[in-house]
Amino acid sequence: FHVRVSPVALAVAPDGDIVIVGDAPVSIEDQTTFAVMRLRPNGRPDTSFGHDGILRIHFPATIFSAEPKAVAITPKGGIVVAGEADLAPAEPRLAIVRITPTGHLLSSFRGHGFDIFDAFRLVATAVHLDPQKRIVIGSRCFYGEQFMALRLTQRGRLDTTFGARGFAVFD
What we know:
The protein has 171 residues and is an all-beta fold. Helix content is 0%, strand content 47%.
């Protein structure tokens, strides 16, 4: 790889592929975005994934900066990345990205492969897939000490059967 990336999390697929997520610079103003890399079990880049083994997520221009925090791999090799996207410095929002096994955004997830939960000042710290392939996210509120868990459907909608309208909050 010939790209500056600060790794923050990794996951190993059942077939031995290794997925590493980190933040990659997008400008000289300390702005970053999600970078997702996939290695084969032998440690070489998986050139069938993204562009020579790496995918940078291009968020809308309204996003000042984005940092991944956690990654999970679906049973079929898809990837879920959770983190934060800042609308401005120190204004984080929860960001979720779904990626196909070939390194493209999964268009059936929220229509374009990612979602920014604009109404919530949350920072994702963990992500996992439950046995029904729903996305479970551990998060903290940016302004406070609350821990929160939320669950999304496979398509990225809040699962209102979980907790209170999709959220479980611990003070």
